[in-house]
Amino acid sequence: MKLTRYKLGDLIVQRREKNDGFDVPIRGVSREGFIKPKQQDADTSIYNVFYRNDFVFNPARMELNSIALNLEFDKALCSSLYEVFYVKDQSIVLPEFLNLHIKRDEFARHCEYIGSGSAREYCRVAQISEFDIDLPSIEVQQKIVDANRLLAKRIDTNKKLIATLEQTAQTLYRRTFVDNIDPNNLPKGWRMGKLGDVCSKLGSGATPKGGKESYCQEGISLIRSTNVLDFQFLYEDLAKINEEQARALDGVTVESRDVLFNITGVSVARCCMVPEDVLPARVNQHVMIVRPSKKNMSYYLLCTLCYPDVKNTLLGISQAGSTREAITKDEMEKFKIVLPADDILQNFDYECSKIFERKNLASRENQTLTQMQTLLLSKMGV
After folding, report:
1. I need a labelling partner for 203 at 20 to 30 A (CA). Which of 126, 147, 298, 355 fits?
2. What class has domain 191-339?
3. How far apart are CA 156 and CA 103, in angstroms?
């Protein structure tokens, strides 16, 4: 495939238009794309204007890839701290193709390098203009964009399905265990108890010998707090350790249907069930294994720990009298929960199993589709 090398600055023009007083949407930018602004009543007279197919980015966060291509708004505003540029000639490079280039990790690393050694660590249009980009023909660019659109559309469809299924599980939990249930007057066969009473294991791991520098490309999975979201397991950045390191962590071996619970940091109290395809696995010191004594309690404990009222209580424990944002093993063992009758738990587990089976299928498909996106770019000269 024939490629032509350009400087990014040869392909783009910076837009410097200020707000003209029209009432148009206001947006901020993150790695995931456009977001609603935190400050709703700001003076927008000095805000920057951007149009459809414009790129908007935060110069102070470019090492995190805080840049977005606008495909949603005909006209909108962003903070005066942001910078805006657009493609000079779309017969040379398509905006969506350029966006694929810019969203790659290599571009973020380039921005991080530019910012290193600077007190402000800003990465402005002038700096990123020096970035080299190899472009195929416009016809090849269009094929890549079209293929990526199909993959992205399917991924988005799956994400919506996953969100719906998670909400279905939460609704089922609320209707079964919360609505019309009085903790002081529980139904027959129900009782109040402690989390530790119904768990055969509550324990967190440790950092393997050698730390991050000793992680492997292949090996035993090491689950960290970054992998654990509410109801979802994030496969990206899943660490691997060798057999010797894994043996040192045999005491925190993860088993099927274990619930993973973050006990420290900004993601404290987030939890999910371990996916089968990461086993065998261990956890580090920031993640606790919550293993019920009875397998039919796994989904119940997961939904309980994710339920908003319970979540808020756990977050309160993590911050009580401290800035550490941490929950101890003792606090988890003593945490009070409702313990329903066995037949109710069995029915709930059966229904949840069906819901999460569909959710897991969609999650695994998205993992494959994301890998296909990466392969698409690598095979076509990007």
Report:
1. 355
2. alpha beta
3. 17
Cα four-point dihedral sign 310, 312, 314, 320: negative
Q: Which of the residue ranges 55-64, 135-144, 234-243 has the most confident prediction, judged by mean pLDDT?
A: 135-144
- Tell me the pLDDT of the chain averaged across its residues: 89
Q: State the residue for tokens 């606008």.
A: 70
What are 250-301's pLDDT values in tens digits? 999 999 999 999 999 888 999 999 999 899 999 999 999 999 999 899 999 9
Q: What is the pLDDT of residues 210-243, one digit of tens each?
A: 777 778 888 999 999 999 999 999 888 899 999 8
CB 245 within 8 A of CB 211: no
Rg (CA), the chain: 25
State the Cα torsion 358-364-368-374 to the nearest 10°: 120
Looking at residue 119, what is its pLDDT?
Answer: 47
Q: Which of 193, 61, 73, 46 is nearest to 114 (CA)?
A: 61
Identical topology for domains 4-135 and 191-339: yes
Return the H-helix or E-strand segment holding 349.
helix 342-379
Residue 231: how many other CB atoms lie within 10 Å:
21
Question: What is the identity of the amino acid at 327?
Answer: I
Sheet holding 287-292, edge to edge: 199-204, 287-292, 259-262, 271-273
**Phi/psi of residue 334, nearest 5 degrees:** -90, 0
For residue 35, the number of C-alpha atoms closer than 13 Å in the C-beta half-sphere is 13
Joined tokens for residue 237? 């950045």
Class of the CATH domain delimited by 4-135: alpha beta
Question: What pLDDT, in 10s, does the model give residues 23-43?
Answer: 889 999 888 889 888 766 667
CA-to-CA dists, residue 157 to 96, 153, 247, angstroms: 20, 6, 40
Q: Any idea which residue has 């599980």 for tokens?
A: 169
